[in-house]
Amino acid sequence: MTLTHLSEEQREIVSLARNFARDEVTPFAAQWDRDSHFEPSLVKKLGDLGFLGLMIPEEFDGMGLDTLTYLLALEEIARADASVAVMLSVHNSLPTQMLLRWGNEAQKERFLKPMARGELLGAFALSEAESGSDASSLRCQAVRDGDDWIISGTKTWVTSGSHAGVIIAMVRTDASDARRGSKGISAFIITPDLPGFSVSKKEDKMGLRASPTVQLVFDHCRVPADRLLGDEGQGFIYAMQSLDNGRLGIAAQALGIAQAALDASLAYAAERRQFGTAIRDFQAIQFKLADMASRITASRALLHATAAAKDRGEPTTAFGAMSKLMASETAMWAATEAVQIFGGYGYVKDYPVEKLFRDAKITEIYEGTSEIQRVVIARQLYAQQD
Ligand code: CAA
After folding, report:
1. Which one of 35, 153, 334, 366 counts the least CB within 10 Å of its CB?
2. Ligand 1 pocket, 159 CB below 6 A?
3. Nearest to 186 by CA among 134, 121, 233
């Protein structure tokens, strides 16, 4: 259910995503979740569909679609499995957009084009063990050595980091006292073949278990100077601007989870009988279903309006934070209501809502917690007041 008018092309993309999810994701998602298994063949299959280059212009081998179309596809995939959706969201919103925006021609040729074709998966490395919400306190450091940089430190919570061919990592290139904090951070294009780079701990997570979340270790990792992305010292600003877009992807992922919770609840409420009638006949259940549909529709309308504003070139930092905040809290709330509607069956793995409940939680945490979204929104309000 959407208020947004969709073009013929957008309908086709939605249907492509829905059919792909039906055939290649839904039948396997529960097993991947149980086994904590990332299915590498999905990268090639999604690449063949063009879904790893959705917003990359055709001149760089992408589909050249707008933000709304990308988000529509993402929501459909998330409806089937949030793990597959986050792989798509991170790749499409963060590393590819960073290369498109700040990469030079050689970097676009070498990294962006194969990423758009689905030959290289992308990841984004900002967080560290002691630098999460306070992103600018990161300590991973690069020291110049002739034509190279030597990077030392550890990045944490890196989605797809174990399978990525390209990782955009934010690293401190100027540690002098005067330039601590958000200044003196640069973005680097990291590939797994670099000496001194390794993938370490894979997290054992509550949800999104089919999406690998790993630590990356840089042990005096030698990185050629031509791997610097954009201007030295601009890495934090690049990361923040990219997260403005990334948060739209996470909002679409959250909406997919919320919609799946509503779909499952509607089906179950029609078939489950108690006190001699289908439970959907009870007002207690009707109110839950109506509230779920209302909140999902409102969150979706905000997200789609934000996507349109972004494509018109308007600033969307606050609206993006609102979209992510509303959609993720809707997802967690809708999944909780779905478990309640299913009762005991909602608490076991035989039915889908237990997984939706676990998957929903992370959308309130990553790419900025709900608290950080509120900070971003409040700061924008104050800036308009000044
Ligand atoms: N766009 C452009 N510039 C921005 C910006 C934005 N959205 N946000 C901040 N900046 C700029 C500021 O203007 C400022 O620039 P100047 O110094 O030139 O004035 C600079 O960045 C520093 O900004 P702040 O002083 O506001 O920085 P701060 O240290 O107070 O932090 C914050 C702000 C919003 C709390 C930020 O740290 C933040 O977003 N934290 C959350 C981090 C996050 O979302 N992490 C996600 C990890 S990635 C992930 O989860 C991906 C995954 O794999 C799924």
Report:
1. 35
2. yes
3. 233
